[in-house]
Amino acid sequence: MLQLVLLGDSGVGKSCIVLRFVRGQFDPTSKVTVGASFLSQTLALEDSTIVKFEIWDTAGQERYAALAPLYYRGAAAAVVVYDITSPESFKKAQYWVKELQKHGSPGIVMVLVGNKADLHESRSVPSQEAQEYAEKNSMLFMETSAKTSDNINQVFEVCPLRRLFGFT
Ligand code: GDP
Ligand code: MG
User: What is the whole-number distance in angstroms between the Cα of residue 75 and the centre of ligand 1?
Assistant: First the structure.
């Protein structure tokens, strides 16, 4: 069992990433998350270890920020999401990383995810900048698209791998 929390600005695609992973779907009319929502999913790793995920998808809006510790405190893994077309969302991601470093469980696996990679024509956060930030903060880094499903499963695979085997 692996408790995983998604954090990041409202609108970056956290709920779409979870829906893509859990249901294999992308719904462009998906509803804004209120408070937080919970989903579970199992995944077989390459060595056939079965991992059961308990996923907390948080809201991101300022008015729910005070609730976030309820979801990340016990988490074994945190996926911090920004939108590659939004520098503000990248700034917000850095805020969440600092929060996790201060108040997250020791040894929490952190993954920085630049979502909406399909919108590369409107990119305004360079991959290299995010990669360097992630390295400095001992995080994994990936760019994803919940729309095309690019790298979505990889995000969820890498968390238990890092947690169980120290995989980087
Ligand atoms: P959340 O607030 O972080 O949970 O964001 P949502 O999952 O609700 O997504 C916000 C908006 O971004 C929705 O209109 C989605 O359709 C859109 N969206 C989410 N992921 C992607 C993606 O990978 N590519 C594109 N083009 N749009 C996305
Ligand atoms: Mg949401």
Answer: 23
Report ipTM (2 d.p.).
0.99
Q: What is the pTM of this model?
A: 0.95
d(CA 96, CA 80): 7
Beta bridge partners of 109: 77
Nearest to 79 by CA among 139, 150, 162: 139
Cα(62) to centroid of ligand 1, in Å? 18
Pairing of strands 50-58, 36-44: antiparallel
Confidence band (pLDDT; 50, 70, 90) for 34?
confident
Token duo for residue 34: 């209120």
> What domains, with CATH codes, occur in the chain?
2-162 (3.40.50.300)
**Strands of 140-143's sheet in order across:** 36-44, 50-58, 2-8, 77-83, 109-115, 140-143
